[in-house]
């Protein structure tokens, strides 16, 4: 059985026609239509390529542009990134999400300084040995910065190729993705890996859109099987997504009489938001009211007995694998001193001082709600009888 045909929908003649169209139509189209982006300055600098590619994973270009500028300004080299405290790196990353990326970049920068003299190494093997360098990042940095003949396979490229080859198989299957990576590698033109990779990515971002692809403007329309079938949107084929779990979470905005607010730092091993600061709390349990949930969580996490007061806000936020409704309540300590039973530390800060700490997006939304409180956040107004 021809496994190629099975996994990408390609046959030799068609694949050869696609390859010819890359040189004749896709690359000229890319030269004429490529977006001017801050990380595309020639000659390509490996560090800037790396920073931009990590930021662009899971994040839109428009969102990344200002983050990239701030990051490069604050950490202009691997050495600067390696020397910076993790808190500073997380602060610059604040709001971009997927914070593991920032932690891994810092760890990789430390290795680049220690083992490669502060410069990103130029071989696929050495890049792959760095923290956070999966197949995508190795191929992107390797081809864009060092001209290595490695195919970059992101969501955009998968979508375009699955349509051009009318691939009937589930593209979320690892074996199918691997076959596409090989296929994309076969479509790289000799001496032009960076241009080929970026052209496919740009085509996916600007023309071969997930919904309503602009086939009439597409330089690859003559060789696109999905277009010929008249059902471009049927590809890529994906198995149905599982239901995303929804979590209901409580958070305490603990005030003291000096109108300071207590924030807690997550432990270094504290999952995807490790190292960030938060309004402490946790998931509601069956049969609990929200004030009971917050009181229990603070007892477990910090050994505190709280009076839980009025609700400040409810924040709705979507992460990659779950959504949350975060109920923030004001609270005051009635017994105990903060202990770090399930957190790395705590701080009492004024609202205006919170700027100095890195928070996740959901906690930033609580801070916004605090800033919107009429007359300012005052202990006496929230707990008048205390
Ligand atoms: S012809 Fe349409 S479906 Fe095919 S690659 Fe171009 S935009 Fe995508």
Describe the protein's topology.
Blueprint: H1 3-8, H2 12-33, H3 46-56, H4 61-74, H5 78-83, H6 86-93, H7 100-116, H8 124-128, H9 135-146, H10 155-164, H11 174-186, H12 193-206, H13 225-229, E1 246-255, E2 261-265, E3 277-278, E4 281-283, H14 290-302, E5 305-318, E6 323-335, E7 345-349, H15 361-371, H16 379-382
Parallel strand pairs: 1-6
Antiparallel strand pairs: 1-2, 1-4, 2-3, 2-7, 5-6
This protein binds iron/sulfur cluster (SF4).
Iron/sulfur cluster binds at residues 160, 163-164, 207-208, 213-215, 218, 220-221, 224, 226-227, 232.
> So how many helices?
16
Beta-strand fraction estimate: 5-15%
Overall body shape: elongated
Structural class designation: alpha+beta
> Termini separation (Å)?
78 Å
Q: What's the CATH class of the largest domain, please?
A: Mainly Alpha
- N-to-C SSE series? HHHHHHHHHHHHHEEEEHEEEHH
Number of domains: 2
Tell me the name of the CATH homologous superfamily of the largest domain.
Hypothetical protein, domain 2
Taking pLDDT < 50 over at least 5 consecutive residues as the criterion, the unreliable ranges are 1-7
Can you tell me the CATH topology of the largest domain? Endonuclease III, domain 1
- Rounded mean pLDDT is 92
The description of the largest β-sheet is: 7 strands, mixed
